[in-house]
Amino acid sequence: MTEYTITPMKTPAEMDGKGYVHFKSWHETYTGLIDQTYLDHITAEACVANAHNWPDNILLAKDRENVIGFIAYNAYRDDSLAETGEIYALYVLQKYQGQKVGYRLMNAAMEQLDKYNTVALWVLKKNEKAIHFYEKYGFKADGTESEIQLGTSATELRMIYTKTT
Asked: Of 163, 57, 56, whose CA–CA distance to 115 is shortest?
């Protein structure tokens, strides 16, 4: 098993790495799950620019100096869930999946969200691998769904984690 570290994203090189992981993971994860034309328009350059434009609340998993995964977190994005944290994104390069990288990123983000008793996330309904990971971690679908446009319509499920005291 590879040794890796979890660290807040700080440097331009780390932002570049996060952007690459975002780009690569989208293509590894969503091929066959979303409209391919839409996916073809997700570029490495756009993902790197996004990483530089929104650097806050990002934790990286690094194998030496190489970014291999990331998690984005903050307060829940709207008023529908009060006093709730949110995981906005969790991506790990395919070759590092199954090595507890996602689990360690999730643990680190949960520490950052410790003031919240509940944490929510949204996941594509067709992404069974991610849903299974989140369920194993302790998230449960709360029955809320949302239609989003990813070239064509796609359904997201909201999942909730409630901390035990």
From this structure: 163
pLDDT of 1 > 70? The answer is: no
165 has a pLDDT exceeding 90: no
Q: Which helix (H) or strand (E) holds 2?
A: none
List the Cα angle 111/113/115 in 5-degree steps. Answer: 105
Half-sphere exposure of 103 (CA within 13 A, CB side): 10
Cα–Cα distance between 32 and 44 in angstroms, integer? 19
What does the alpha-carbon distance between residue 71 and residue 8 come to, in Å, rounded to a whole number? Answer: 10
| Interval 135-155 mean pLDDT | 95
Local structure of 153: helix, strand or coil: strand
**What is the model's pLDDT at position 2?**
58
3-state helix, strand, coil in the chain (%, to 5): 35, 35, 30
Residue 53 to residue 128: CA distance in whole angstroms: 30
Rg for the chain (alpha carbons), in Å?
15
What is the three-class DSSP state of 33?
A: coil
pTM over cut 0.85: yes
Token couple for 121:
């996330």
